[in-house]
Structure formats: C-alpha cells, structure tokens
Amino acid sequence: MTYVIGDIHGNKEKYDAMLEKLSPKDTDAVFVLGDVIDIGDDGIAILQDMMYRANVYPVLGEHEYMAKKFLPVIAEKGSAEKALAALEGEEKEQLAKWLTMKSEKTIADFLSLDEEGREAVLDYFSEFTPYEELEEGGKTFVLAHAGINNFDEGKSLEDYSEEDFVFAKTDYNTPCFSDKYLVTAHTPTVAIGKEFAGKVYSKKRHVAIDCGCGYGGRLAAVCLNPLKVFYC
Ligand SMILES: [Mn+2]
C-alpha cells in the first residue's frame, strides 16, 4: 500500500494516531507531503520520529524549504534575530517571512538540540524530495506539496525548481496533467470550496489532502490504490 499524508504542522498527537491507524507494513510506503513543521508545537519531534522509519518518505513543503535554508544560519548566529540582522536583500526578506509563519517553536526546539541532534535534523532535510512520481494500479500520481508553478505538460518534472513545487498556486477546477493525477497538500480543502471543508478533494485529476490539521482540523491520509481515505 502507498499512503500520502500532508500538512501535519507539528501536531504529533494526530501524526501518531494516523500512523497507528495505518499501521504500515515494511512493504508499504508513507509519503509525507510537506509542512511537517511550524504552527503546532512538535515539528522537530515529528521529524525525529520520521527519520527512523524506513518506509516514511518526506516531500518538501515551503516550511521545510525555509527551515533547511535558515536553521543553519540561525544556529551559527545564535538566534533568529541575529541571523535576520546579518542577512541582506532577498534572503533577509525570506527569513523575515518565515518568522511570521509560526516557526518560533521549531527554531527554539532546534536550538535546544546538541550538535549531533542538529546535524541529524539538517541531514534529514536533504532527504526531502521536491516531488515524487508513482505508478499505482495503472494510474500515475505526481506528488507535489503545493502544485506546479510554470506548468508546461511537455516539460520534464526534473526541470522545475523546488520553488515551483513548494510555492505553487493550484487551480483545483482545472486538471493539471492530461493523463496523471496531481496529489497536493498545502491548500486546505475548505479553500477549494466550503463543501469540501475537512474532506479530501478528489476531482479533475486532483487529489487535495490538506484537511486543515494545522488549524484545528483533521489530518487525512490517502491510500492511492485502492483509493481510500483515512482521517484522524
Ligand atoms: Mn504549505
């Protein structure tokens, strides 16, 4: 079985409950479609759990994109404020943005780790892939945290940037690929339409799985084949 979970946003209770519900076997795969950290309190603890699970595969969200870029600078300078003071231009703007994205607890927990613990987290960020492409039950699924910016069906997925996947804006009323399913998190399904609040959206070759776990909603997991949805 192949499962996809997204936008856990530091909610370890729901993460633990979902893994218990799915109870993935060694031959199963669980893709975590980005935004593991920030907003909730336990992002770092969830990463530390994920990194020891052989069948959990992390895909990059914009929160991890920010963390992997700025946590090394913050650690070197000693605090987020000092890192911000030391940076210039676009990087300074981007860090300032991350500091408005409920990242304080992630940063504090990272700074409280010893050298070895910090290195393990930073190493793990390098395992986050920008996208995944999977064949399940005769269908092709592309997993990307927010979608695909600058989309061109003739372009190879390898030729997009990380930014194209993590900062994408997706039109859920229009299919993306003509022959593949696009699986995304990032956009709470309530933002696609009020009637989809708290539920996985599966239309127009889109599968949108963020049911608002970061905002007090449910955490969803989708089994790709056979298509089945789980909630915690
Ligand atoms: Mn996101």
N-to-C terminal Cα separation, in Å?
Answer: 19 Å
CATH T-level topology of the largest domain: Purple Acid Phosphatase, chain A, domain 2
CATH architecture of the largest domain: 4-Layer Sandwich
Chain oligomer state: single chain
Task: Give me the number of helical elements.
Answer: 9
Query: CATH homologous superfamily of the largest domain - what is it?
Result: Metallo-dependent phosphatases
Largest sheet: 5 strands, mixed
Number of domains: 2
Which ligands occur here? manganese (II) ion
Question: What structural class is derived from the secondary structure elements?
Answer: alpha/beta
Total beta-strand segments: 10
Describe the structure.
This protein is of the alpha/beta class and 232 residues long. The chain folds into 2 domains: 2-63 and 126-231, 4-Layer Sandwich (Purple Acid Phosphatase, chain A, domain 2), CATH 3.60.21.10; 66-125, no CATH class. It is 34% helix and 19% strand. The chain contains 9 helices and 10 strands. The protein has helices at residues 12-22, 43-50, 62-77, 80-86, 89-98, 104-111, 115-125, 162-166, 189-192; strands spanning 2-5, 29-33, 56-59, 132-136, 139-143, 181-184, 201-203, 206-208, 220-224, 227-231. It has a 5-stranded mixed sheet with strand order 3-2-1-9-10, with helices on one face. Strands 4-5-6-8-7 form a 5-stranded mixed sheet, with no helix packed on it. Strand 2 (29-33), helix 2 (43-50) and strand 3 form a beta-alpha-beta unit. Helix 3 crosses helix 4. The longest helix is centred in the first third of the chain and has 16 residues, at 62-77. It is globular and about 50 Å long. The chain starts with a strand and ends with a strand. Residues 35, 61-62, 145-146, 186 line the site of manganese (II) ion (MN).
